Amino acid sequence: MESTRVLLEAHEIPTHWYNIAADLPSPPAPPLLPDGAPAGPGQLGAIFPPAIIEQEMSLERWIEIPREVREIFRLWRPSPLVRAVRLEAALDTPAKIFFKYEGVSPAGSHKPNSAVPQAYYNRAAGIRRLTTETGAGQWGSSLALAGQMFGLEVRVYMVKVSYGQKPYRRLMMQTWGAEVFASPSAHTGSGRKTLAEHPGTPGSLGIAISEAVEEAAGRADTNYALGSVLNHVVMHQSIIGLEAKKQFDKIGLYPDIVIAPCGGGSSFGGLAFPFLGDKAAGDRRAANLRAVAVEPCSCPSLTKGSYTYDYGDASGFTPLIKMYTLGHDFVPAGIHAGGLRYHGVSQYVSQLYHAGLIEAVAAPQLATFDAGVRFARAEGIIPAPEACHAIRAAMDEALKCRETGEEKVILFNLTGHGHFDMSSFEGYFSGRLEDHEHPEEEVARALARLPKFA
Ligand SMILES: Cc1ncc(COP(=O)(O)O)c(C=O)c1O
Fold it and tell me: Does residue 108's CB lie within 6 angstroms of at least one atom of ligand 1?
């Protein structure tokens, strides 16, 4: 009997992250201050430690992963690469479907891949407390875990709609010692302002980021940690694609298509960028590689957004980043894939999309749950709603192969399990879940409010 899992040993954990900034088709656009001047390390120093700022701006292709970080990673890494043979059979497809399973981390997703190094660098810089935001609760629980490992206090602003939907995520964060508030909250000026203007708001990642950044900027012992979007976060996630490449080498295959869900873009960049690095280096195996980012129809930053400078948060506290965005104060519908409800996308993901080097598709909510349930029934693993977006696109590609007879190798990022998302599945089974279309007029209004730069 052939194994369906490709495993690596602890000593095969990559020693360096891959930074795609070295291989972009043109130099990355600098982050800007509200007056249009480039944001430098000085401004970022109020909320980030020096090592993170250096990584954020770095054009080095390879950056070493500290030994202390790899020692924590070996608790669950390397993560398995799995061939979904039972899904292939259920779809009756000649395609070979693989997934990289990031749900094996203690927090249940890929997010600790960046939480651990961020906690490490903050601790090394003498910081005692971290603030952050969380949507679905995946990032907040990952930072709670990482903070605990390095002796840091963690305070999490959790998007209100998820706070209500996911009480066990909150308890998980508390178990790892973090404090959790529903956002918008009365603890910050930006939270109080939002509550006064929009009392019934479900919250958004942009609002929660404003609260966490405001608190960190106001306290010398406190820094801020972001779970996606920024360059250093996407780079930390490259460990996913780097491991996957080693695993494919072991079985003598190479993917034709790599697919990941796309919220802020860290799991997409994390999986796809090391393969795109091969392509940039002229590796013939990667010549026709397709990389597909999958976003929800209700928050279609890449497929319906504008490529322009925008803030990373709702209140305009962060520097402006050149990215695909729906407008920083756009509040998406309260869909169940909370981690995908973000108005913008990583700068490098945006740049590559703009250059036509990667693809994006938007998937309706019900179709993603349908795919997730089919996957769970074939492969056993119950996926996180965010991951269901990648499964949907992988299944659609596999079904195309059934029509054409092509034996394509499809790799997708199974970014997390859905054990804390069962209320979403309940909504799906009971027929309460709906498809939300992209509210064109609302997005147009949010885009009209954007600051105007080059
Ligand atoms: C399981 C899971 N997958 C994907 C995402 C999307 O984030 P990103 O685009 O940064 O990978 C999230 C975000 O919370 C998540 O929890």
Answer: no
The CATH number covering residue 406 comes to: 3.40.50.1100
Q: Is the dihedral of CA 359, 363, 367, 372 positive or negative?
A: positive
Say yes or no: CB of residue 78 within 6 Å of ligand 1: no
In sequence order, what are the beta bridge partners of 310?
A: 321
Residue 99 in contact with residue 411, Cβ under 8 Å? yes
Give nearest CA residue, ligand 1 atom 10: 266
Q: What letter represents residue 289's amino acid?
A: L
Indicate the helix (H) or strand (E) that contains 42. Answer: helix 41-44
pLDDT in tens, 165-209: 889 999 999 999 999 999 999 999 999 999 999 999 999 888 999
Q: At 453, is the pLDDT very low, low, confident or very high (cuts 50, 70, 90)? A: low
What spacing in Å lies between the alpha carbon of 48 and ligand 1's midpoint? 22
Give the tens place of pLDDT for each residue, 281-334: 999 999 999 999 999 999 999 999 999 999 988 888 888 999 999 999 888 887
Residue written as tokens 């059979």?
89
| Overall domain count for the chain | 1
Could you tell me the distance, in angstroms and rounded to a whole number, from the CA of residue 450 to the centre of ligand 1? 25
Any atom of ligand 1 within 6 Å of the Cβ of 267: yes
Q: Is 142 domain-assigned?
A: no
Please report whether residue 185 resides in a domain: no
- The closest residue, in CA terms, to atom 4 on ligand 1 is 386
Mean pLDDT, the chain, whole residue set: 95
Question: Measuring CA to CA, which residue among 291, 301, 299, 289 is closest to residue 268?
Answer: 291
* Residue 443 forms part of a structural domain: yes
Q: Does residue 152 form part of some domain?
A: no
What are the strands, taking DSSP E only, across 178-256? Answer: 179-183, 222-224
Are the C-beta atoms of residues 65 and 236 closer than 8 Å to each other? no
Indicate if ligand 1 lies below 6 Å from the C-beta of 344. no
pLDDT score, position 444:
87
Shortest-distance atom of ligand 1 to CA 233 = 10
For the CA of 138, the nearest atom of ligand 1: 16
Domain hosting 302: range is 5-10+66-108+232-448
- Alpha-carbon gap, residue 131 to 416, rounded angstroms: 23
Distance CA 389, CA 362 (A): 9
Task: Give the span between the Cα atoms of 230 and 265, in whole angstroms.
Answer: 9
The answer to whether 365 and 388 are in contact (CB under 8 A) is no
Is the full-model pTM beyond 0.90? yes
Q: Which of 100, 109, 139 to mutate to test the pocket of ligand 1 (most atoms within 8 A of CB)?
A: 109
Looking at the CA of residue 237, tell me the nearest atom of ligand 1: 11
Ligand 1 atom closest to Cα of residue 263: 9
